[in-house]
Amino acid sequence: MAKEITTRGENYSQWYNDLVIKADLAENSAVRGSMVIKPYGYAIWEKMQAALDKMFKDTGHVNAYFPLFIPKSFFSKEAKHVEGFAKECAVVTHYRLKNAEDGSGIVVDETAKLEEELIVRPTSETIIWNTYKNWIHSYRDLPLLVNQWANVVRWEMRTRLFLRTAEFLWQEGHTAHATKEEAQEEALRMLDVYVDFAENFLAIPVIKGDKTENERFAGAENTYTFEALMQDGKALQTGTSHFLGQNFAKAFDVTYTSKEGKEEYVWATSWGVTTRMIGALIMSHSDDNGLVLPPKIAPTHVVIVPIYKNPEQLEQISLKANEIKKQLEAKGLTVKYDNRDTHKPGWKFAEYELKGIPVRLAIGPRDLENGTIEVARRDTLEKSVQEINSIADHVVGLLDAIQQNIFNKALKFREANTHKTDSWDEFKEILANKGGFVLAHWDGTTETELKIKEETKATIRCIPFGSVPEDGKCIFSGKPSKQRVLFAVAY
Amino acid sequence: MAKEITTRGENYSQWYNDLVIKADLAENSAVRGSMVIKPYGYAIWEKMQAALDKMFKDTGHVNAYFPLFIPKSFFSKEAKHVEGFAKECAVVTHYRLKNAEDGSGIVVDETAKLEEELIVRPTSETIIWNTYKNWIHSYRDLPLLVNQWANVVRWEMRTRLFLRTAEFLWQEGHTAHATKEEAQEEALRMLDVYVDFAENFLAIPVIKGDKTENERFAGAENTYTFEALMQDGKALQTGTSHFLGQNFAKAFDVTYTSKEGKEEYVWATSWGVTTRMIGALIMSHSDDNGLVLPPKIAPTHVVIVPIYKNPEQLEQISLKANEIKKQLEAKGLTVKYDNRDTHKPGWKFAEYELKGIPVRLAIGPRDLENGTIEVARRDTLEKSVQEINSIADHVVGLLDAIQQNIFNKALKFREANTHKTDSWDEFKEILANKGGFVLAHWDGTTETELKIKEETKATIRCIPFGSVPEDGKCIFSGKPSKQRVLFAVAY
Known about the structure:
Two copies of one chain form a homodimer.
Chain A: H1 12-22, E1 26-28, E2 35-37, H2 39-58, E3 62-63, E4 69-71, H3 72-76, H4 79-85, E5 91-94, E6 97-99, E7 106-108, E8 113-120, H5 125-135, E9 144-153, E10 167-177, H6 180-200, E11 207-210, E12 222-229, E13 235-245, H7 247-251, E14 255-257, E15 263-265, E16 267-274, H8 276-285, E17 302-306, H9 311-330, E18 335-337, H10 345-355, E19 359-363, H11 365-370, E20 372-377, E21 383-387, H12 391-416, E22 418-420, H13 424-434, E23 437-441, H14 446-456, E24 459-464, E25 472-473, E26 480-481, E27 484-488
Parallel strand pairs in A: 3-9, 17-18, 17-19, 22-23
Antiparallel strand pairs in A: 1-2, 4-8, 5-8, 6-7, 9-10, 10-16, 11-12, 11-24, 12-13, 13-16, 14-15, 19-20, 20-21, 23-27, 24-27, 25-26
Helix pairs in contact in A: 2-6
């Protein structure tokens, strides 16, 4: 192996960290809780951004950019919002440094203190709704469908690369509507866009539903979520879409004149996904050899490795390899030909397994004679020998099959790890020993929800959409319940 | 007119502000010195990003992301760097807010004070070179060709939309090389990429050259610049590329083992362009009717406006208009068909002139009968009647002509406003009354440079590349000089 990683069986958490570091995705920085996203990790983010940005634009949204800093007073305007974010924010208090008078270095210049402190945005509802006040006057100005790609800061105490960092990258959609119905439709439309992206690009099957009141976004009337199950049986919330009602419109006094000439408050949504998705991607599909990337999100689809004993052989192989590279590129694929003479083929094989390149082609002198080529797929590690003449078509078909297989495998895993129980003992036993999703009855109160969390660490991930109404008794309190909800221990 | 703007003749500065606001490009935010980039302004930035990002990748660069925050102590490590940036930076001192005990609102929680203050990045050399220390060990790790798209903050006291804002968006390239020659080549290569972009995408002719020592980036051994002339005769620095020598490698102790087994300090470059380019774009080409956008950077290339008296006419026109739209889109163009019945054609014409859409097509019932269509080009405001059957080809050719014409016009303006003088009185007279670039002799000292600035407000924009050596006397001191340098009053 090029670089050893801990196996999942030994220590899942260490396996994840090893993988992130050794596959060159990200690393911790000198700033507590902030990561450096390395070029390979960032290339995955760029693929995610490109696919999502297109989906946002196809559904009528435009991008804009709002300030990084939010005046402190803005936070006070929406009561729940400030409660949710005040405890974890970076505060700018000064705007100048100076040389210390005792020559000991540079210090904050106390004469350059801000009159009002600025908060580094943890999310932008407040600054955006303060701006929308001037953009919205009439029903003709609605709907306003805006998205922002940005960095945000939440002062998390316990951080993990991609999953929970003080600074992260994300997109945040902020839309304004004339009616409640339109805003609710928008929040659900964007949830569906996310689900489509998660399942068809990331190959991660997700369960969508409502968050309970306790798990809602600070300032939302309703939060829609989509939840995925990781290989260690823990859930991961991949993104959320919020119906904000008129809360922010009222906090920032944003009204519009309706067709009928009446002054009304505007209805709002917001929705976001973050670099956390890279963590979800890793934990859903990867194995003890390294990353497994779905082809639709892999920065490089195919790597070609030459097998040779002398420069003459390499020269001949390179001719053929470059020809194949061109054929594949003509099909819209990204291809790397690794002809470095500083590393052996075995080292390269391990390296590209670690990096999760979906398809590896190997070609040697014997192949040239026979008109064949060795094809290895990353997801199953299966190898086969193919005709060199039809290799481009073969690879295109194989990439589709890999994308589908990765999704199917994750779906199968989720199905095998989704339990239904009506017994509190079994509920505890599943969560303690097996993990996974547990569908159980709940009495609908925050009190019970919190007690269950206290005893099992499990939270209600969502109240799944479209589940069949079913009379039952709350798993914890025994009180009547009309529907099962989805429990899990979560990241 | 849809929205009145001040003319350039009346008040150039007011014209600029009016245009930015009324064409919906950007506006001031509630945060002092920070702007909101509105969707139309951001769409222009996205076009710039896409073109530049491709050029960076074509020259072998990859993107990554480094932390927003920089520990204060990092700044002290490169002496000139801290001197250049300490006076204008936002400082994070706390990480929590709380409810005031007297119930007056939320206040900074003094118990959550950071041990070491964090600076919101004004530029990322320090945090990046601190990271590179762990990435670079051997000559095999070089060159390292990394770019970052990010927001940065410099606490400017006097701000103007796009031209000078406390927060702005930019890209910053940071490369590491084994030799001085390679690093110098890289700095010049990226300068050429920028010049290519400025001239062939933004249609802004630029003069490239060295900055004087006094105008260099804080921490650079050499700064290369490209300078453009705005319509009011002031210069605008559009971007810079720096050869950083071994300054940051030494400050952060970044060494590599050479092929010969020797431990050597790494050589560096950095280079960046910002949302300021949008300001340059506006001030180079726009007129009293609004924006003039070069087709290669215009978010929308063509707008089609129907001219009709009743719904039946609109229906017929729409059939044809949508057909034309498809034909144009098949040629890779972005087209808007504005069939809103809430606004008259005259209003729409003025609106799209204001927004700088390069080509406007108008089509009415008479056109349908005659197989014709009216074509208006934004740059010259000329109208012509064209055959409807060949309109797609006509528009493609016209867009090329517009791109070229906008560049030629700006070049002609610059040539007409570039003066050469050997007389101090004339030098002052030109700068006071005409403005523009002035090529004059300079004795090479910072002392003279600063005195000239004091008396005329003009700075040395650059020492142009490839200028013919010429013996002369410094315009100010009369001391001997070997070359003319480029003076102007600058933004």
